Each structure stands twice: as structure tokens, then as C-alpha cells.
């Protein structure tokens, strides 16, 4: 793995400089008399409020409470002052006091009366109190985040938000997650949500360390997301990071160390079991492949070690506030030669001027991400390779393979240890983001905001196959390739926010303009073969000796540039915080689409009625909040590459003779489509928010109907008249309908013990509509997806995209059983006729036999506290989904046990006919309940300590157990794409981890 070149001295200098600034900014000159204000801040239960901000209203002085709820401010002027205490989730508390020389004591009690209603959530180009929200927005705070080894912020949300599916298939630390909000809604374009990080639209989520996040707000319905127009059909996730606070400097450290092991293995025969099986059934194994006891899965895996360290500092005065942090994360994969190392440095400064009428903010973040990758073919190899074969061999015939034992002539059969050690792949991402924001209060209630951001990513990939690699592509000559790309994103946002309150009437309005220019894949890709040595790998491709006609630049990525210009606005009205109305409109123009469809408009409207504000609800004591809301909006999806609307020429598969030399042939690789446009999603959402018994029980119930039209889809077209046989066009449709329920309860709450629990449930029904395009006579009635690729399964698929059915519909032969006398498997045709597998014609005799998407998902979070101890237990799961277990199919070749290993499940099943077709025999129930993580912590009493404001240690276990009937490695397989739910042999094992961590504040 590459080492970081980021200078440690730079980081140290940054912190020393900020420390100097902090102490300088708090130095007071000319203080004649010493005036000290101190006290304690408690909640209604008498518990200390940690981290509350104490502000001296008519000065620029402020501080924060420590772990015992205590605060102290010195060098204050004499006289009357209004002191205000602020804390998210609690009502502000203010008192007026006359300060005298010497020590002054003032204590506060903060009320829970507002519960979560006064909390602020981020909305498009602004913020709003929860009680004012008319759309569907879910907020997740650090206390609710998933604990343990977390490689990316999106993993913090897994199972926490109803309707949001965060699916990280397997335990590869270098792999990302598939994220879907309220079901899949695209056939071709990406389904990833839009991230907005500290107001920067489309910022890279890798720029944020989990420890730096203050909150994540998920906008789920189109009435909330339409303000982001053509990029918001998959939802919007706002990420808010830590900012500087007025007060004394606060230095925080958090870190953990963890071990990870394989949670479950492929259940294949070991050497003794395999030897017994082949002997019992009269199978002969080649002499070179016997006599050894090799656990191939063990040979490629290890106990992984991970550690994470986050150091941050905040502070400043009321006029100038600063924040800085540095995060180091090292996650060693449970597969050898696999892992990720990342460092993130962030710094920001906020400056107020002209009596707070001008607010300036500057932020800089840099992420350096280095990773080592492995070929996923090793997992299938580790399962299939005979356990009686050796890893290495001294035979002369194996010298060409580097001494690794190999079996020439056998299809898809390669020594997995050799594959692991003879292929090198490293990747590096260096992402820099700088953004500047200026807020100018022109008039009371009228604020003009301007945001400038610049994001740049350098991507470098090196791949090399050794000269001894068994693959014919590299054997005897080696193969190397190198990809080096740069991506740049520039954004300008300028908008006005106006808020006016007159009596019981409140009006807020926003109008703005956005300009975004993106340039991706600016770089090159090259390859070479014919290396004399493996020492330099792909670092110097010129050392290769290219055979005649070899093109080292085949399929080099094209530089992709796009421009998005937008005009947008929002208008809101509130009467006595009882009747709420909001409407927005955005007009987007994108260069990604055809000349006939560059512009589109995205409207939304939503309303809410807070019944608890009505006169007829005044005397009741059951509901502390009851709100009905409804909304409708339209958003879009433009997550495709630029230039898909124009003719593109590229190299063809042939060559031609010109002036005595063979030249590469070029031709049309893509047809033009001047009518190409973005996908459009309209959504109706109705919800009920409630709180009972002063917030002791609360939650929400929602129903949505999500319709997507003009889906982008690649169609087969005749050539001629088209120059190429494929065309990207709009026209298909899809729908998602569902219900989401969230319940949270404060079961017990007193000074010694508390127990809070939250349950979320989501039911989504997906359905594909028409597959006909908006171009005359172009369309399909159905499409087969999910190629399996097993030996002897040429061209077979396991899924179908069919109108009236959901994505992930399994379309295979119906398996009836096994005839032990005839030694044949029996299937049923759609007509009802019983046949053997050689009489099945794929896919004509296939049937719908299951669905990959779950009927519902759920999560259950539990927080318990006893004095200084805290315990969090989180379960999540899916129900009603099926998995096509291609791994089991591949390991069910009992008649071929002399040349490939088999599973214990196949031996138990006892079917002695090699499976050669995709059938329901291998479709299994994928429902599961997982104890996702459990954390036990202890908070030390540090009140009055000279250095510590907070000290806590904790232990976390992740993926502690799974309850499922699935026989494979793990039921949580990939849910993205047109053929989700297929366990196709190359599954990176999910891990079980145990970590020990500490949180310190100085």
C-alpha cells in the first residue's frame, strides 16, 4: 500500500497556529477589575448538560459546559447582562444578572418541553425547525449513528432511516455501498442520492470523516427534493459537519482499534471429507491433486486489524470562530493484500462583521485515499479448488507458474493463492474541496448568500499481472495497465432568503441561480505486455515489448465535460405555526441532453396542519404534537455520462490494409439522439407526525406514490438506418408505492437510568411499467438480465425486466424434484408438463419464480443508560426477499467431485445430476434479522479535572449474529442494477468485528 506524502509537520503547524490564534483571541487587554461568572447547567432530571453554549448577550464572550455541566467566564465588564444558554434538543434558557467584582454564580435548568420540534433541520438552501417542515425529512444525529468500523459516512445510516436501503454487499473495505431511497427508480442511470455537504451540492462523501459529522438529514419526498431539480430523483442527503463555537478552545480526540474475522465461510468439503466422498462414489482424482490437506479459504484470509484516529479543535470568539480536524483511518481487509488507508484534513473559519450583518465562511478539505484491491475470482477459486491439492509444487512443469500448482486445460480453474499473489492492484484518490460562503443581511429578514466551491479529484490506478500468472493474457510475458484521471467540479450558487413575520403571519421566500461546470476523466489509460521482469509492475509501461498490432490505448476514457445552469425559488407561508404551506420551482438546463430537451422545470407544493395548535386541542393532555402533512413534487435524474446524445466514433474490432500497413478500423460506436432528456420522477406523499405525553412516545406514518417516466434505456435498433445497433432513449416507466412507520419512545427516564428505543419499518412495492421508447417503433416487451456464467451455462440468465413485475424478478425453470432411480432432475414447463433438464429450452420454458426486492425492511435501535454506563443495541433486517444462490449451483456438481470441490449442502441434497440450467432449485429465502452492532460504554466523572472535559471508553461488536434460512455466506447480497439478489460465486465474505475505543475532550 502506498504511504502518505502529506507532511506531518503541516498538520502539527496547523494545530499550533490555531492554538496560538485561540489564546491570542481570548487575551484581554486593559481589564481593570476581575469579574468572573460561573455556574452549572442541568436538565429537568437534574443531569448535567454537556456541551451547552453559554453566551453573554451584550459582549462577544461565550463558552461551553464541561462534562459536569459547569461553565466559567472571566474578565467580564461590570453591570447588567443577559446570559443565554443554548443546546440542540433543549429549550433556550436566559437570565439577566448584575455582575459585581469578584465571583458571580448563575445556574440554569434547561427544559425538555420542546422535545425535537425546535430542532433545526437542513432543507434546500436554508434551515427550518422540525415543526415547520411540510415535507418528508428524516434526521440522524451522531448518537444514532452505527458504531464500530465504518469506512464511509453512508454506512452510518444503514437501517436508521425508514425507506433508505444502504446495502454493502460483503466485507471488502475498498467497496462502496448501493443506496436506494424508496425503491429503485431507474433502469440505466445511477440510483445514488445527491449529497450536499455544508451547502456544497454534489460534494464527495469521502471528504468527510464520520467523527466530524454533526447531523445527516435525508430528504425523501419530491416536495422536499424538487428544489434540486434534475439531480434529486434519488433523494438528497445533507451532511452537516462540526463548526467553530465561541468560547475557549476545545480539543477532542476519538479513536478505536478493531479486529475483524470472517463471519461465515462457503460450506465446502475439507480434504478428509472430499477423499471419503470420491472413494465412496468411485471417482478418480489425478495423482498430482491428492495427498494434501489445503484449506483454500483459510489460505487467502486473515484476521484483519483496523484503527481510526480523529483529532479536532474548535473555538474562537463571537466574531471569529475556527475549526480544524485530521482523521486517519486504516482498515486491513480480512483477505490478504487487501485494505484501505485514508487521511482527511479539514479546516474552516467563520467571520462576522458589521454587527453580524456580514458572515463569511471558508472551508478546506483534503482526502487522500489509498487502497489495495484483489481479484474477486479468488473466492470462487477457494471454494472450487480441490482441498487435496497443494499450493506449491517443486515439479519442473510448475516453474513457469512461479512454483504454484496449476491444472492446465480445466475451465475456470485457477489456484486462488497464486491469483492473489500474482496480481497487483492499487488505487489512489486525492480529493480537494475548497468552498467559500458569504451571507449579507441587506435588510432585516433579507439575506443574500453566495457560495463558491471547487472540487478536484486525482484518480490513479495501477494493475499488473505477473509473468507467471496462469492467465493466458499474462503467462510468460506479464500484463500491466495504468489509469490516471482528473475530475474537476466548479459551482457558483447565489440566492436570496427573505423572512417576514407580522403578528401570526410568517412569510419566507427564496430565489437563486446556480452554475455548475464539471470535467471528468481528464487523463489517460494505457496498457502493455511483454515485460522482462515483474519488479516495476505497471510503473513503467515502456519496459513492455508490444507484439505487432497491439494497441496500448484501446478503450481509453474520453474527457467528459458538462454544464448545468439553474434558476430556482421557494415560497413558504405560516399562520400561527398552525397552517403551513410551501411551494418551490426549479428550472434546469443541462448540456448532457439533446438539443430539443436541454431545459426542464421541476415544481413542488406541500402543506401541513398542526392540529395541536387548534382551540379544540388546547385542553387535551394526550398529544403534545399532531401534524398532518401532504406534498407533491417533480424531480429528475441526470446521472449519466455526458455526450450520450451525440454521434461518437471509436475503434472497431477489425483492421484494414492501407499503403501496405494494417491500420485500426474506426466507426460509429454511438448513435445521436437529439431528443434525449432526463428521467422525471413525480411523488405524492402524505404523512402524520405525532408526539404523545410530552414526547414520551412519538413518531410518524407516511404513504407515498412515486411514478418515474422517461426512463433512460438502451434499445436494440436496426442498422441501417441507424449507424450503430444500440440507442439510448427515453420512454420506459416505473412506479414505487410504499408505507413507512417510525416509532420512538422514552420508556424510562430518571437521574440514574434511562431507556429509549426507536423502531422503523418500510414497505415498498416496485413495478416496471412500459418498456416502449418515445421514438416510434423502438421498444421491447421484456428483457433478460442477470447472466450467471457458470461452466456449461452459456448465455443463461436468472432475471427478467418485465412490465407489471418488479426489478429483480427471477425468471428460471421451475424445479420439481429429483428422481433417485433415474438419477435425473425433474422440472415443470409453464404448460404443466413434467420434463428433464435436457428438455427445457431457456428461456422459453422459464417462469417467474421469485423476487429479489424485500417485502419490507426494518430497524430497531435501543439506547440504555445506567449512571455512567451506556449500552446501544441495534438490530436490522429484511423480509420477503429471495436470493439466487449461484454459488450453491456451482458447488452442486457431485459427478465432477474428482475435478472440483463440492458443498456439504450438495452432498446432503444428494442430487447426482450436474445442473446445467438456471432453476428455482437455487432460489432461497433471503430474509434475515441481524444484530448489526452493540456498544457498551463508560463515561468517567471528570468534573473539576484540570485537563479533561470528557472521557469515555467503549467496546463495540459488529455483525454479532444473523438469523436466516439462507444457506450461502450471507443473505445480504447486492440490490442494485437490473438483476439484484444474485449470489454469483465471487462474494467477499462479510466480517465480524470487535473494537475498543475512547473519546476524550480537553
TrEMBL record:
Keyword Cytoplasm appears in the UniProt entry: no
All copies of domain TonB-dependent receptor-like beta-barrel, residue ranges: 380-960
Main location: membrane
NCBIfam families on file: OMP_RagA_SusC, SusC_RagA_signa
Native source organism of the sequence: Sphingobacterium psychroaquaticum
GO terms under cellular component: cell outer membrane
Keywords annotated in UniProt: Cell outer membrane, Membrane, Signal, TonB box, Transmembrane, Transmembrane beta strand, Transport
Protein name per Swiss-Prot or TrEMBL: Iron complex outermembrane recepter protein
Similarity-based family: Belongs to the TonB-dependent receptor family.
Compartments in which it is found: Cell outer membrane
Record-annotated TonB-dependent receptor plug domain positions: 130-236
Annotated InterPro entries: Beta-barrel_TonB, Beta-barrel_TonB_sf, CarboxyPept-like_regulatory, Plug_dom, Plug_dom_sf, TonB-dep_OMP_SusC/RagA, TonB-dep_OMP_SusC/RagA_CS, TonB-dep_rcpt-like
Signal peptide: 1-27
Entry membrane topology: Multi-pass membrane protein
Amino acid at each position: 500500500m502506498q504511504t502518505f506524502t502529506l507532511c506531518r509537520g503541516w498538520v502539527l503547524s496547523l494545530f499550533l497556529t490555531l492554538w496560538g490564534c485561540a489564546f491570542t483571541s481570548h487575551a484581554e487587554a486593559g481589564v481593570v477589575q476581575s469579574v468572573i461568572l460561573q455556574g452549572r447547567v442541568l436538565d429537568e432530571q437534574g443531569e448535567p448538560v454537556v456541551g451547552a453554549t453559554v453566551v453573554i448577550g451584550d459582549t462577544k464572550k461565550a463558552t461551553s459546559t464541561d462534562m459536569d455541566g459547569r461553565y466559567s467566564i472571566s474578565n467580564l465588564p461590570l453591570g447588567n447582562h443577559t446570559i443565554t444558554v443554548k443546546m440542540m434538543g433543549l429549550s433556550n434558557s436566559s437570565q439577566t444578572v448584575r455582575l459585581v467584582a469578584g465571583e458571580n454564580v448563575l445556574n440554569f435548568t434547561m427544559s425538555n418541553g420542546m422535545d425535537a420540534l425546535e430542532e433545526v433541520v437542513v432543507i434546500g438552501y436554508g434551515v427550518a425547525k422540525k415543526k415547520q417542515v411540510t415535507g418528508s425529512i428524516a434526521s440522524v444525529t451522531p448518537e444514532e449513528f452505527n458504531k464500530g468500523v465504518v469506512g464511509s459516512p453512508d454506512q452510518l445510516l444503514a437501517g436508521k432511516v425508514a425507506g433508505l436501503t444502504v446495502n454493502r454487499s460483503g466485507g471488502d473495505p475498498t467497496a462502496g455501498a448501493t443506496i436506494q431511497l424508496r425503491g429503485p427508480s431507474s433502469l440505466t442511470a445511477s440510483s445514488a442520492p445527491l449529497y450536499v455537504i455544508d451547502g456544497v451540492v454534489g460534494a464527495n462523501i469521502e471528504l468527510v470523516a464520520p467523527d466530524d459529522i454533526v447531523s445527516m438529514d435525508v430528504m425523501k419526498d419530491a416536495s422536499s427534493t424538487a428544489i434540486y431539480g434534475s439531480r434529486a430523483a434519488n433523494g438528497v442527503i445533507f451532511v452537516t459537519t462540526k463548526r467553530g463555537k465561541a468560547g475557549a478552545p476545545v480539543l477532542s480526540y476519538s479513536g478505536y482499534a478493531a479486529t475483524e474475522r470472517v463471519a461465515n465461510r462457503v460450506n465446502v468439503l475439507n480434504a478428509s471429507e472430499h477423499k471419503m466422498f470420491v472413494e465412496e462414489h468411485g471417482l478418480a482424482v489425478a495423482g498430482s491433486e491428492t495427498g494434501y490437506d489445503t484449506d483454500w479459504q483459510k489460505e487467502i484470509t486473515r484476521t484483519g486489524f483496523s484503527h481510526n484516529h480523529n483529532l479536532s479543535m474548535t473555538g474562537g470568539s463571537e466574531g471569529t470562530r475556527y475549526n480544524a480536524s485530521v482523521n486517519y483511518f486504516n482498515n486491513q481487509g480480512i483477505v490478504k493484500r487487501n485494505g484501505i488507508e485514508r487521511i482527511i484534513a479539514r479546516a474552516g473559519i467563520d467571520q462576522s462583521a458589521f454587527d453580524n450583518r456580514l458572515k463569511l465562511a471558508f472551508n478546506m478539505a483534503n482526502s487522500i485515499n489509498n487502497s489495495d484491491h484483489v481479484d474477486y475470482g479468488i473466492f470462487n477459486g477457494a471454494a472450487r479448488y480441490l482441498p487435496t491439492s497443494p499450493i506449491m509444487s517443486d515439479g519442473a512443469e510448475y516453474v513457469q507458474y512461479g512454483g504454484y500448482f496449476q491444472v492446465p486445460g480445466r475451465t475456470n480453474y485457477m489456484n486462488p493463492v497464486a491469483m492473489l499473489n500474482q496480481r497487483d492492484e492499487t488505487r489512489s484518490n486525492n480529493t480537494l474541496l475548497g468552498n467559500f460562503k458569504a451571507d449579507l443581511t441587506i435588510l432585516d429578514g433579507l439575506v443574500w448568500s453566495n457560495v463558491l466551491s471547487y472540487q478536484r479529484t486525482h484518480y490513479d490506478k495501477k494493475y499488473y499481472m505477473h509473468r507467471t500468472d496462469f492467465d493466458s493474457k499474462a503467462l510468460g510475458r506479464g500484463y500491466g495497465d495504468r489509469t490516471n484521471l482528473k475530475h474537476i467540479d466548479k459551482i457558483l450558487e447565489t440566492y436570496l432568503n427573505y423572512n417576514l413575520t407580522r403578528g401570526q403571519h410568517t412569510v419566507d421566500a427564496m430565489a437563486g441561480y446556480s452554475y455548475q461546470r464539471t470535467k471528468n476523466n481528464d487523463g489517460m489509460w494505457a496498457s502493455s505486455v511483454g515485460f522482462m521482469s515483474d519488479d516495476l509492475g505497471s510503473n513503467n509501461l515502456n519496459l513492455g515489448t508490444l507484439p505487432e498490432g497491439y494497441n496500448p490505448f484501446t478503450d481509453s476514457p474520453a474527457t467528459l465535460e458538462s454544464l448545468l445552469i439553474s434558476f430556482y425559488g421557494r415560497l413558504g407561508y405560516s399562520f400561527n405555526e398552525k397552517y403551513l404551506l410551501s411551494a418551490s420551482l426549479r428550472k434546469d438546463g443541462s448540456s448532457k441532453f439533446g438539443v430539443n430537451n436541454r431545459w426542464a422545470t421541476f415544481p413542488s407544493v406541500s402543506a401541513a396542519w398542526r392540529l395541536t395548535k387548534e382551540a379544540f386541542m388546547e385542553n387535551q393532555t394526550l398529544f403534545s404534537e399532531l401534524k398532518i402533512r401532504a406534498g407533491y413534487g417533480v424531480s429528475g435524474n441526470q446521472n449519466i455520462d455526458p455526450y450520450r446524445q451525440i454521434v461518437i466514433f471509436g475503434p472497431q474490432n477489425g483492421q484494414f490494409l492501407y499503403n501496405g500497413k494494417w491500420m485500426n478500423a474506426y466507426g460509429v460506436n454511438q448513435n445521436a439522439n437529439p431528443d434525449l432528456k432526463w428521467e422525471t420522477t413525480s411523488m405524492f406523499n402524505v404523512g402524520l407526525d405525532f408526539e404523545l405525553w410530552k414526547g414520551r412516545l412519538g413518531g410518524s406514518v407516511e404513504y407515498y406514490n412515486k411514478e418515474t417516466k422517461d426512463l433512460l434505456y438502451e434499445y436494440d435498433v436496426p442498422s441501417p438506418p441507424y449507424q450503430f445497433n444500440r440507442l439510448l432513449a427515453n420512454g420506459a416507466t416505473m412506479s414505487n408505492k410504499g408505507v413507512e412507520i417510525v416509532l420512538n419512545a422514552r420508556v424510562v427516564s430518571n437521574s440514574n437510568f434511562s431507556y429509549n428505543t426507536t423502531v422503523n419499518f418500510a414497505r415498498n412495492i416496485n413495478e416496471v411499467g412500459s418498456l416502449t421508447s418515445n421514438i416510434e417503433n423502438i421498444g421491447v416487451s421484456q428483457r433478460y438480465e442477470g447472466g450467471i456464467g457458470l461452466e456449461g451455462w452459456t448465455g443463461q440468465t436468472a432475471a427478467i425486466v418485465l412490465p407489471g413485475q418488479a426489478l429483480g424478478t427471477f425468471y428460471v425453470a421451475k424445479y420439481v424434484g429429483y428422481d433417485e432411480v433415474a438419477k435425473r432432475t425433474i422440472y415443470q414447463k409453464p404448460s404443466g408438463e413434467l420434463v428433464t433438464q435436457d428438455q427445457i429450452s431457456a428461456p422459453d420454458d422459464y417462469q417467474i419464480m421469485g423476487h429479489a426486492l424485500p417485502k419490507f425492511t426494518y430497524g430497531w435501535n435501543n439506547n440504555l443508560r445506567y449512571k455512567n454506563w451506556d449500552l446501544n443495541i441495534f438490530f436490522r433486517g429484511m423480509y420477503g426477499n429471495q436470493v439466487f444462490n449461484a454459488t450453491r449451483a456451482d458447488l452442486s456438481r457431485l459427478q465432477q467431485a474428482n475435478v472440483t470441490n463440492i458443498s456439504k449442502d450438495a452432498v446432503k441434497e444428494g442430487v447426482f445430476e450436474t445442473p446445467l440450467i438456471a432453476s428455482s432449485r437455487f432460489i432461497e429465502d433471503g430474509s434475515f434479522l441481524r444484530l448489526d452492532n452493540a456498544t457498551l460504554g463508560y463515561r468517567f466523572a471528570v468534573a473539576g479535572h484540570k485537563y479533561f472535559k470528557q472521557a469515555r471508553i467503549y467496546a463495540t461488536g459488529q455483525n454479532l449474529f444473523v438469523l436466516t434460512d439462507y444457506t450461502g455466506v450471507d443473505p445480504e447480497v447486492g440490490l442494485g442494477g437490473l438483476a439484484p439478489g444474485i449470489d454469483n460465486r465471487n462474494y467477499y465474505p462479510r466480517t465480524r468485528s470487535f473494537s475498543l475505543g475512547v473519546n476524550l475532550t480537553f
